[in-house]
Amino acid sequence: MLSLKNEADILRETRELIRAHRMALSWRQDDLAQRSGVGIATLRRFENTGRIGFSGLAKLLVALGLADKFIEALQQPKPAPKSIDEFLATAPTRARQRAPRRKKTI
Questions:
Q1: Separation of alpha carbons 74 and 11, rounded Å
Q2: This prediction's pTM
Q3: Closest CA to 15 of 68, 73, 71, 56
Q4: Is the distance from CB of 48 to CB of 62 less than 8 angstroms?
Q5: Of 8, 37, 48, 94, which has the fewest beta carbons less than 10 angstroms from its beta carbon?
Q6: What is residue 88's three-state secondary structure?
Q7: pLDDT category, 83, cuts 50, 70, 90?
């Protein structure tokens, strides 16, 4: 997939999003540094410049509860069906539900 983002865009957006998640949790930089095991100087540099090693980023993602979303974003998308027949063959079927019984009136 084509993207118009360059390295600088990715660094800026990543640091802004990580910082926004930290702030949404009402965590100070010290809190995130302690919970993640990333040094406070490293975290401050990351939030200012976007530069951090991959293991440091992974620690931040885990501490913020974002690791699963990150991994999911990197996975290959499932291929789209090539025909309507293929789509219908792979579509999940739902079991038909019975209507609730009516009460008998006398």
A1: 16
A2: 0.70
A3: 56
A4: no
A5: 94
A6: helix
A7: confident
